[in-house]
Design a protein that fits this description.
Layout (H helix, E strand, L loop, with lengths): L8 E10 L5 H4 L7 E5 L7 E9 L4 H20 L7 E4 L15 E2 L5 E2 L1
Antiparallel strand pairs: 1-3, 1-4, 2-3, 5-6
Length: about 120
């Protein structure tokens, strides 16, 4: 994507976490992928919902790969106990994207993402 391209944000998933995780976007930082985690205006009591927006100005395949990578990174944070009460409300189908040729994102328990 060129630096002149305007992102075309598409909501690919809604993620639910415990309400004490008010900055999910700070736990995952991946500069190589074009995405953002946007807090929803309302969430069920005791939880926070985030929309996973992916830049879809490129190919559908790239948007799907980005959604897959971010959702798996969040699942790894949950497995490590960093993120509690994780539920993928919508968009779990992106986890079924074949992982071949996907960018690798390693997430440590501090929440920092690494290649």
């Amino acid at each position: 994507m060129s630096s002149d391209a305007v992102p075309l944000w598409r909501c690919m998933a809604v993620i639910e976490v415990g309400d004490h995780i008010d900055r999910l976007d700070e736990l995952i930082r991946e500069d190589g992928l074009h995405y953002r985690l946007v807090p929803c205006a309302s969430s069920p009591k005791g939880f926070l919902w985030y929309e996973l927006h992916v830049d879809s100005s490129g190919s559908e395949h790239r948007a799907a790969r980005t959604a897959w990578a971010i959702l798996w990174a969040i699942k790894r944070l949950a497995a490590d106990g960093v993120v509690t009460d994780l539920r993928i409300v919508t968009g779990a189908e992106w986890l079924h994207v074949p992982p071949s040729a996907l960018p690798r994102i390693d997430v440590d328990i501090s929440g920092a993402a690494h290649h």
